[in-house]
Specification:
The protein is α+β, with helices and mostly antiparallel strands. It has a single domain, classed as Beta Barrel (Thrombin, subunit H). The chain is built from two helices and eight strands; from the N terminus they run ββββββββαα. Strand 6 and strand 7 form a beta hairpin. Helix 1 runs antiparallel to helix 2. It is globular and about 35 Å long. The mean pLDDT is 87.
Length: 122
């Protein structure tokens, strides 16, 4: 995807995730990048574009285990990676996702503008 066509800023976010396709849970060691609208995951299998999926971003701290759950669809599958566009998210998960992006972005003002223009998923 051309960078100019992106609605949301991508951040580097090295966390574990679960990719769920047709009920099969696939453990993902690394989220390559993350935005409010989608993510790029390290995954070596080919997946057909437009495949529905679920994503759990696993946030584990010293005192709690937070999980951000999203619905999405595969928009690109290439050598070693799969790109997911988020299509549905609960308000609580959206709040946490927005904060993750805010606190990891190089320019929080850009993120605030993106959130104000697109308060949900687009």
């Amino acid at each position: 995807m051309n960078m100019e066509n992106r609605i949301f800023t991508r951040i580097v976010f090295d966390m574990k995730a679960e990719l769920i396709i047709s009920g099969q849970i696939i453990k993902i060691d690394t989220i390559d990048n993350l935005s409010i609208g989608g993510c790029l995951l390290e995954y070596n299998e080919q997946v057909q574009n437009r495949t529905a999926c679920e994503i759990n971003i696993l946030m584990s701290g010293t005192r709690s285990k937070l999980k951000i759950s999203l619905s999405g669809e595969i928009i690109r599958s290439e050598k070693g990676h799969v790109a997911v566009k988020f299509t549905e998210i609960t308000p609580d998960s959206l709040y946490h996702l927005q904060n993750i992006v805010r606190y990891n972005a190089p320019d929080v003002d850009v993120i605030e503008e993106e959130i104000s223009k697109h308060p949900g998923l687009k």
